[in-house]
Amino acid sequence: MTDALRPMPRQRLYEQVLDRLRQYVTEGGLRAGDRLPPERDLAQRLGVSRASVKQAIVVLEVQGLVEARHGGGTYLVRDSLDVEPVERLVERRRRLPDVLEAREALETKLAELAAERRTDEDLAALRSALAHMADEIEAGDHGVEGDRLFHAAVTAAAHSALLAEFMRSISEQIAESRTESLRQPGRPHRSLAQHQAILDAVAAGEPRRAAAAMRRHVRTVAKVRLLDWDPEAER
Fold it and tell me: Which of 129, 138, 146, 195 is the least crowded, having the fewest Cβ atoms under 10 Å away?
């Protein structure tokens, strides 16, 4: 039986607020660093509740488009509000815990094996990836490519074909979790330091230390604003 005539999803009010905010930023020529009007003013001007405005701001914050400073207002991080569709955001939020659980299980073991099996070439690849990430962060980026290279180098250093295949099978989901984590405020520098701790343990040939360092890192990756967001909070 076709489901073409299934009930249509009702657009949440805060999604309409998102549309208006995107239009406001575009028409007003706002740029990164500019401040949005206070939530109370937005609610009055749009004729909606502050709860709807607050939920819209949370969605923008989750996507790294604005920075909400405690007691200091909300500021644009980019020159536009190209908001990801909320339903796609909800779907990513749904699957993220499973991805993070798989990452902790796989990557902790990979780090342990890397400390046992790494070669000089493996260590050189790890150091190169770390330097790449540091350069990205220094240039003002989040360090996404350097992060990818580092975790790929750990996987390669473990010399486990089957575990590497498992990692490849969830590479797209891992990329999502990487991007989600690295756009958290202050996260790129913290991740870089944690990568250094993993590298130090691998280079020292200390499997338990390497596994512990990777476990701490992946648990930090799991601390993202997206998982604190309730898509239905407005209702």
Answer: 138
pLDDT of 187 over the 60 cut: yes
SS3 35: strand
8 Å CB contact between 39 and 53? yes
Average pLDDT over residues 169-190: 93
Instruction: Decide if 89 contacts 59 (C-beta within 8 A).
Output: yes
Nearest to 68 by CA among 229, 177, 188, 221: 229
DSSP string across 43-108: HHHHTS-HHHHHHHHHHHHHTTSEEEETTTEEEESSSS--PPPHHHHHHHHHHHHHHHHHHHHHHH
Cβ burial 43-75 (10 Å sphere, 16+ → b, else e):
beebebeeebbbbbbbbbbbbbbbbeeeeeebe
Reported as a pLDDT band with limits 50, 70 and 90, residue 235 is low
pLDDT tens-digit profile of 62-96? Answer: 888 888 877 778 999 888 888 788 888 888 899 99
* Predicted pLDDT at 171: 95
Q: Which residue has the higher pLDDT, 7 or 187?
A: 187
Do the beta carbons of residue 65 and residue 81 sit within 8 Å? yes
What is d(CA 49, CA 73) in angstroms, rounded to the nearest whole number? 18
- Return phi, psi of residue 3, to 5°: -110, 20
Helix axes 86-117, 161-169, angle to 10 degrees: 170
Task: Please state the rounded mean pLDDT for residues 192-206.
Answer: 98
